[in-house]
Design a protein that fits this description.
The protein is α+β, with helices and mostly antiparallel strands. It contains nine helices and seven strands.
Length: 397
């Protein structure tokens, strides 16, 4: 009987223990399923296991609950960081919109400033051009007055010759072709005397010379006007392929009145390829450099003008044997309003504007000078299409 009781008790204990263990295991299984299901939503309150006892399964349950708590804390931190990140993104988006608006506003201001700067630059160029015109006016007027004066003189002489022919023609008209009277003979003799006295052979020759000389004089005036028209185009942005030697010849025609009385001009113009330039503005640069060279020479000076082609560039050099430039002034030479001339002579803008014009042509303007020995300015312009591409890019912008 005792053996049966013991067996019963063992069976009962095993049953109770199995039931307890099964319940505990089912709780763990159910909690594991719940946490797998709710982990994405962040709901952990119903996934913890009630801990009863101090056995190994209770320890497993406690470890499970700690894991759940850790996951819950991590989820809260994740939500916090995500919320902070979303807030930061919204703040950044607002700042980006604000900065974009500010950038757009600044860009509009910059475009407006660039436009105002361009207009001011054009006004400065125009002012310097007018200053150059003022310097050239007397010389150009003299160059025009010379041919105008001898054309006027020639016309007065031709007027006298015309009067002689008029008088002779009137005497011819009084003759009757069928008359042989004594009066008729007297009229013929008077006419022959008038012809002899008038020296018609000389008048005929001189008339042709006067006409030829007048035509040449008027052609000279036309050439001067044409050169002035080229110079007046400095306010235009039009560019074209052009021979720099022609620019030099045109400029010399205009400034010769300023130079020829106190210095000699030597030209060493070599054949060069055409360059893509604004003709009027390049003539303005050449005018400024030649006038500066003339003003640096006191008397019996010499200006040497050279053009040559080297390394895909056309180089124009204008050298004088004048007073030269002090070394301390070389670095300031192309600064706006800087001048070494006496007060009231020049605007101080010529070289600065000339430097800018050459830069706009993708070229360089350099200077070599030695005090009391002279200066040499060099204009270096590209002959390839780099300058043309630069202009097209500028127009697109």
């Amino acid at each position: 009987g005792i053996a049966l009781i013991e067996m019963f008790l063992v069976t009962l204990f095993s049953f109770v223990l199995g039931t307890y263990l099964t319940k505990k295991l089912q709780g763990l299984r159910q909690a594991a399923r719940s946490i797998s299901k709710n982990i994405t939503g962040g709901e952990y309150s119903h996934t913890k296991i009630e801990v009863t006892g101090n056995d190994e399964l209770s320890e497993v349950a406690e470890a499970f609950n700690k894991l759940v708590t850790s996951l819950e804390n991590e989820h809260k931190r994740k939500e916090k960081y995500q919320n902070e990140l979303e807030t930061l993104n919204r703040t950044l988006e607002g700042k980006v919109i604000e900065r974009t608006s500010l950038l757009y506003e600044r860009n509009n201001q910059l475009e407006k400033s660039n436009q105002e700067l361009h207009e001011a630059q054009q006004q400065l160029i125009q002012a310097e051009k007018m200053a150059s015109v003022g310097l050239l006016a007397a010389g150009v007027a003299h160059e025009i007055n010379n041919p105008i004066a001898f054309v006027t003189s020639n016309l007065n002489t031709l007027k006298d010759y015309t009067e002689t022919y008029r008088l002779i023609s009137e005497q011819l008209l009084t003759l009757s072709p069928n008359s042989i009277s004594e009066t008729h003979v007297l009229q013929i003799n008077k006419l022959l005397t008038s012809v002899q006295d008038a020296e018609l052979a000389y008048i005929n020759q001189d008339t042709q010379d006067l006409i030829d000389e007048s035509i040449q004089g008027l052609a000279r005036v036309k050439s001067i006007v044409k050169d002035l028209k080229q110079f007046s185009r400095a306010g235009s942005d039009e560019k074209q392929w052009f021979d720099i030697n022609t620019c030099l010849t045109t400029t010399l025609n205009m400034v010769s009145g300023q130079l020829k009385y106190h210095c000699t001009i030597e030209k060493q113009l070599n054949p060069v390829p055409k360059v893509f330039i604004n003709v009027g503005k390049i003539i303005q640069v050449l005018t400024n450099l030649l006038i500066n060279a003339g003003q640096a020479i006191h008397e019996n000076g010499r200006i040497t003008i050279t053009s040559l082609y080297k390394n895909n560039h056309v180089i124009v050099s204008i050298a004088d044997n004048g007073s030269g430039i002090e070394p301390k002034h070389i670095d300031k030479l192309f600064d706006p309003f800087f001048t070494t001339k006496k007060e009231g002579v020049g605007t101080g803008l010529g070289l600065s504007i000339s430097y800018g014009i050459i830069q706009d042509h993708a070229g360089e303007l350099t200077v070599d000078s030695e005090l009391n020995k002279g200066s040499c300015f060099n204009i270096i312009l590209p002959t390839d299409d780099k300058n043309k591409q630069l202009m097209e890019t500028s127009n697109e912008q």
